[in-house]
């Protein structure tokens, strides 16, 4: 039983290390997230949506801070409303903190 625990722990840690998301993965995630939030019926928001079609322009408007801990990563950004958002990236997924 003890060996099984250690084996699962080691496999979990190796899996976490290998699937730690990078900044490119986060950029794709955040652009998709904001595209879903924008309602096309509002003309101002539709202009913003057109801006989001160019991810590099959109991402340059956000202040992003990345910390890589090898098993997981944290991402802190200032969103379009001026509020700070924090995300934890682990196993190629992102969790809002």
Write up this protein.
- With 97 residues, the protein is α+β, with helices and mostly antiparallel strands.
- It has one domain (2-96).
- It has four helices and four strands; from the N terminus they run H-H-H-H-E-E-E-E.
- It has helices spanning 2-18, 23-37, 43-52, 55-61; strands at 63-68, 73-78, 84-90, 93-96.
- The chain has a four-stranded antiparallel beta sheet with strand order 1-2-3-4, with helices on one face.
Largest sheet: spatial strand order: 1-2-3-4
Give the fraction of residues assigned to helices.
Answer: 40-55%
Number of domains: 1
Structural class: alpha+beta
Distance between the termini: 34 Å
Overall 3D form: elongated
Write the layout of secondary structure elements.
Blueprint lengths: L1 H17 L4 H15 L5 H10 L2 H7 L1 E6 L4 E6 L5 E7 L2 E4 L1
Antiparallel strand pairs: 1-2, 2-3, 3-4
Short description, anyone?
The chain is α+β, with helices and mostly antiparallel strands and about 100 residues long. The protein has 4 helices and 4 strands.
Primary descriptors:
elongated; 4 strands; 4 helices; alpha+beta; four-stranded antiparallel beta sheet; 97 residues
């Amino acid at each position: 039983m003890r060996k099984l625990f250690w084996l699962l722990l080691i496999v979990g840690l190796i899996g976490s290390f290998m699937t730690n998301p990078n900044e490119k993965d986060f950029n794709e995630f955040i652009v998709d997230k904001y595209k879903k939030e924008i309602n096309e019926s509002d003309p101002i928001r539709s202009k913003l949506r057109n801006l989001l079609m160019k991810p590099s322009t959109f991402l340059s408007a956000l202040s992003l801070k990345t910390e890589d801990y090898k098993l997981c990563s944290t991402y802190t950004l200032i969103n379009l409303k001026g509020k700070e958002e924090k995300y934890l990236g682990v196993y190629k997924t992102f969790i809002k903190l």
